[in-house]
Amino acid sequence: MSYVDGFVLAVPKANLDDYKKLANTAGVVWKEHGALAYVECVGDDVPYGEITSFPRAVQAKDDEIVVFSWVVYESRKSRDAVLAKVMADPRLTPDWSTMPFDAKRMIFGGFQSFMEL
């Protein structure tokens, strides 16, 4: 069964093109280092819930759009090895002052698959 890293974040609409450039670079890097798949999605039907929702989870503001992303690996062991290489890759060395989103509001985590159809 595969292993998946998932991400949810809020990107200012004015920074969406910059975010897409960053995501494209990230996808290339992840795939080069062994990820099976890299997917980035822009919120299209993401309502603001009364109790909880994607926008609430990342404290999205009126001028921001929710992005949902995931990376697929062969296994947790593979993910750990790929992630170590990705984090050391100079193409993704972050300059936090110029990031096109607020990384403090990003949600992320690793998930073990239990079913794949």
UniProtKB/TrEMBL annotation:
InterPro entries to which the protein is assigned, alphabetical: Dimeric_a/b-barrel, DUF1428
Pfam families on file: DUF1428
Domain of life: Bacteria
SUPFAM superfamilies reported in the protein's UniProt record: Dimeric alpha+beta barrel (SSF54909)
Name of the protein this chain belongs to: RNA signal recognition particle 4.5S RNA
